[in-house]
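Hey,

Quick one before I head out. I ran the complex with protoporphyrin IX containing FE overnight. Inputs first:
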Amino acid sequence: MKRTVYIYKAFERFWHWMQALLIFFLAATGFEIHGSFSFFGYENAVSYHSVAAYAFIVLIVFAVFWHFTTGEWKQYIPTMKNIVPQVNYYLIGIFRNAPHPTKKTVLSKLNPLQKLVYFGLKILVVPVMVLSGLLYMFYRYPHKDSIEGIRIETLEPIAILHTAGAYALIAFIIVHMYLVTTGTTVTSNLKAMLTGYEEIDVSEDESEQSEAAGNVYEKI
Ligand code: HEM
């Protein structure tokens, strides 16, 4: 039975779109600093990058708090279950109109590949970007080209790590934007992240259990 389910909460949508905006802006200003192109001007790019970086850190603090207080962090625990059918689906099934191998529910909204990739972003790529970014900042500004306390005398490894992370994030965004279009319809995933509601298949039992737990449904 198809039901319209409230799947992404207000804070989750706010966090998702703010994060998208900030990463996009950090990538644009960052690659101007890197010398890839010129748009804001180098000095401006550096100041905008710092402001956006602090905003990103504040957002991360709120997001960590939200994930732990709501228990939503559990959605991101990686699993190998169903991972092969999911990969096969993206490589083959999707071009043959095969059904999605993972059923989305309110309690489990991520497929196994999403769990793995988002988990990697949360515990590896984003922390590496924040840490290398902060080291970059403190290397450059208060101490003028060194952080003696932790024996950092050269910027090179930090710059390489930060730039590699930036490439990883951009690669993620490109793949992410393609996968957004592979939901039930081309726009259904995008609409869900904008409005919070998505039409998903639920069994009679699931729907009753979930309604009892206070989830909002619209019957269709
Ligand atoms: C909290 C997170 C971040 C902090 C604190 C931070 C900080 C910095 C700082 C201080 C610089 C060097 C500025 C200068 O040379 O004066 C820099 C460069 C750069 N940042 Fe970030 N950044 C963060 C996140 C990001 C993100 C998310 C991206 C991309 C998606 C990014 C991409 C870049 C790039 C490409 C450079 C140029 C690196 C180079 O050529 O060496 N940064 N960042």
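The radius of gyration is 20 Å.

Talk tomorrow,
K.
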